Amino acid sequence: MISKDDFNKLSLDDKGTLVFSEGKFLATRFYYNQTLCLYDLGNFFVEVFYNSNINIIANIQIMKDKTLDIYIDSEIKQKT
Hints:
Shape: globular
Helix content: 25-40%
């Protein structure tokens, strides 16, 4: 498994390759014009920022622990 430090050193393309090949998809949320997807990489969680207006992955970053609550709240709202 990759460390957070090593992950942060990767290029956007390399982060995407790693996340999509080894990560486990967990959830999706929407923020303005972006779709954010949560992935589990074993030691940490990663968010993939997809901009649907221009059809690109804008960013991939390690998620801050507090952000998990946003995904939980989003999932609850979708089910009610």
